[in-house]
Amino acid sequence: MAEESDLEKTEPASERRLEQAREEGQVPSSRELATFLVTMTGVAGMYTLGGWMWPRSARLLHDGLSVDRRLIFDPSAMFTVLVERATDGLLLLAPLMLALMVAAIASPFLMAGWNFAPKALSPKFSKLNPFAGLKRMVSSTAAVELAKGIGKASLVGSVAVWVVMRDHDKLFALFSAPVDEALAATGDLILTSTLLLVAGMGAIVAIDVPFQLWHYHSELKMTKEDARKEFKEQEGDPQVKGRIRQQQREMARNRMMSNVPKADVVVTNPTHYSVALRYESSRGGAPRVVAKGVGEIALRIRTLAAEHGVPLVEAPPLARALHKHVELEQEVPARLFRAVAEVLAYVYQLNDAFAAGGDIPRAPDDLPVPPDLDPGADPAQ
């Protein structure tokens, strides 16, 4: 049962999945919305521009049917007249055609916004698979498209029947009416029928657009396995990331260990903590912590220090305070200056004693470490 649930598309599409679909040109769309917008724009344009277009159309028709007899036998002149009439016709229809073009382009924007997908232009041979085509023919999408087709046909038929039943007397009277009256009456009938069709198409669009959006997101749903795989691809495999972090820690530890031979002194707990300090007078400032650690790392620091002749000083409170409050490559805080200065003074005296063969100085004890900086002296910790 768990495997079946993992294979069911129950998870909503992720942002990455939606982005990939858009890159492939897969966006929500509604042909009914495009048809509705174009038809409504055409009706509104004819209603708005009709008073301006009608007399010019009549004039253009009159000029087109009126030909100078002298031009009939001059092919070049007739061609010029044809170009002039065609240009006048295009200019007459240009506002309406421009409005229709804007409506046709605007419909995809309303559903999915701007989307440029070069991948959609590449050929997909999977679409040539006849079995996939048969599967699409019997799918739920095909059933919905069939229902919409029946609805549109019923709508057009209902409008036609209603107009004929309501205005059948006017329709028969058109045969005997003057041309001007017949044209005006015909225009009114066409306008009324078109408005009814647009209203009906608006109802279809109100149903189709939410359905297309639901269908689009439903098709892009993911299985739980897909969601887990995508998460791993985006965030990275936890095991791989763990290994990377481990390698990074190991590299950082190796870099830290390479600084131990350069240290001036290693302050120890003596067994649990080790902190290596280095002071460079050329850089100015306070001494810096160049290495630190507890447990096994502390032992490695002490071993390296002994191998390279770096002095070890047992100062448990100072070692604990430095390990807790000072990060690598940071300077010692002012409140620990005095304690660190006493340790470094001892180290310098020790080096001088070894170099000159003098008496070995006594190691510092009871270093002035503020109790609030020493974890071992804080009962709360």
What structural keywords apply?
381 residues, alpha+beta, four-stranded mixed β-sheet, two-stranded antiparallel ribbon, 7% strand
Please provide a written account of the structure.
The protein is an alpha+beta fold. Helices cover 66% and strands 7% of the residues. The protein has 13 helices and six strands. The strands form two sheets. A four-stranded mixed sheet has the order 5-4-3-6, with helices on both faces. A two-stranded antiparallel ribbon has the order 1-2. Helix 3 packs antiparallel against helix 8 and helix 7 packs antiparallel against helix 8. The two termini are 50 Å apart. The mean pLDDT is 78.
Computed over alpha carbons, the radius of gyration is 44 Å
Q: Beta fraction of the residues?
A: 5-15%
Helix run count = 13
Estimate the mean pLDDT confidence. 78
Number of strands: 6
Order of helices and strands: HEHHHHHHHEHHEEEHEHH
Q: Which overall shape is indicated by the principal axes computed on the Cα atoms?
A: rod-shaped
As laid out across the biggest beta sheet, the strand order is: 5-4-3-6
Question: Could you outline the blueprint of secondary structure elements for this entry?
Answer:
Elements: H1 2-7, E1 9-11, H2 15-23, H3 31-65, H4 69-72, H5 75-112, H6 130-137, H7 140-173, H8 179-219, E2 222-223, H9 224-235, H10 238-258, E3 265-268, E4 273-278, E5 288-294, H11 296-307, E6 312-314, H12 316-325, H13 337-356
Parallel strand pairs: 3-6
Antiparallel strand pairs: 1-2, 3-4, 4-5
